[in-house]
Amino acid sequence: MGSYAMDDVKPDHRFRTLFISDVHLGASGSQADQLLDFLRYHDAATIYLVGDIVDGWALKSSWHWPQSHNDFVQKMLRKARKGATIIYVPGNHDEFLRSYYGTHFGGIEVVENAIHTGVDGRRYLVIHGDIFDLVVQNARWLALLGDKAYDFAIRVNRLVNAFRRSFGFPYWSLSKWAKFKVKNAVNYIGAFEQTLASEAGRHGADGVICGHIHHATIRNEHGIRYMNCGDWVESCTALAEHEDGRFEIITWADPLPRSSPVLPISARAA
């Protein structure tokens, strides 16, 4: 089984539900190896894949598919075979799957969006979120350009952090710094959160769970709970629902995994 040897290890933490988004398999920046490590210690009866799991945009320009990317796909299929409920909500980078709504692939169900019911009966709209991003919808060429710029920033950031590690400094995110210093980026994040919260209200839901902008957070927007899963390119975050109904953002990063109920992470309009 090769890299599947660790699959037999019993996870330390089992949740009611896990929400994972923006893994970007096929892109050089994807940290699928970190996600695999996370899944060795965390499991759930239900797993939502909240879009941009596979990066079709990146795969069109150049083929990049290391073993860790294949291992993640196989791990999800194996979980489905063992009885886990796995629901895939495609995003803009894996939009090729939007032609397969209602289809099951190896037990993984592909849907346009979903309503997740919490322990307390509250209903949450699960959606990637790109359809409410005007840049992606109305200026695709600009979104693609921004995607390339982000990939370049990730490569630069790795070089910077290799240098920082040699001097004993902790990880520093160029994207996080830029996105929270640039006024337009801050305004964009706020507008995105408000728009998604409003959409949840239109569905009669009590909250929304999404991805897309690589900004993990839990907050209330006008009486609607807004939760973003984050990403597995930089921040390495997942949203977890405990058996008692409590939601938590889990950050899995060097040198030690950390968790926080509300933690802002670097943003990206993808």
Q: Stretches where pLDDT falls below 50 for ≥5 residues?
A: 1-6, 135-145, 260-270
Task: Specify the helix fraction band.
Answer: 25-40%
The biggest sheet, with number of strands, parallel, antiparallel or mixed sense and barrel status, is: 8 strands, mixed
Strand order, largest beta sheet: 4-5-3-2-1-11-12-13
Explain what this protein looks like in three dimensions.
With 270 residues, the chain is α/β, with parallel strands linked by helices. It contains 7 helices and 13 strands. The strands form 2 sheets. It has an 8-stranded mixed sheet with strand order 4-5-3-2-1-11-12-13. The radius of gyration is 18 Å and the shape is globular.
Give the secondary structure arrangement, pairings included.
Elements: E1 13-20, H1 32-41, E2 42-49, H2 56-61, H3 67-81, E3 85-88, E4 104-105, E5 108-110, E6 114-117, E7 123-126, H4 134-138, H5 140-166, H6 174-181, H7 183-202, E8 207-210, E9 217-221, E10 224-228, E11 237-241, E12 247-251, E13 258-260
Parallel strand pairs: 1-2, 2-3, 3-5, 7-8, 8-10
Antiparallel strand pairs: 1-11, 4-5, 6-7, 9-10, 11-12, 12-13
Helix pairs in contact: 1-3, 6-7
Overview in brief:
This protein has helices at 32-41, 56-61, 67-81, 134-138, 140-166, 174-181, 183-202, and strands at residues 13-20, 42-49, 85-88, 104-105, 108-110, 114-117, 123-126, 207-210, 217-221, 224-228, 237-241, 247-251, 258-260. It is an alpha/beta fold and 270 residues long.
Task: Give keywords.
270 residues, alpha/beta, eight-stranded mixed beta sheet, five-stranded mixed beta sheet, 7 helices, 34% helix, disordered N terminus
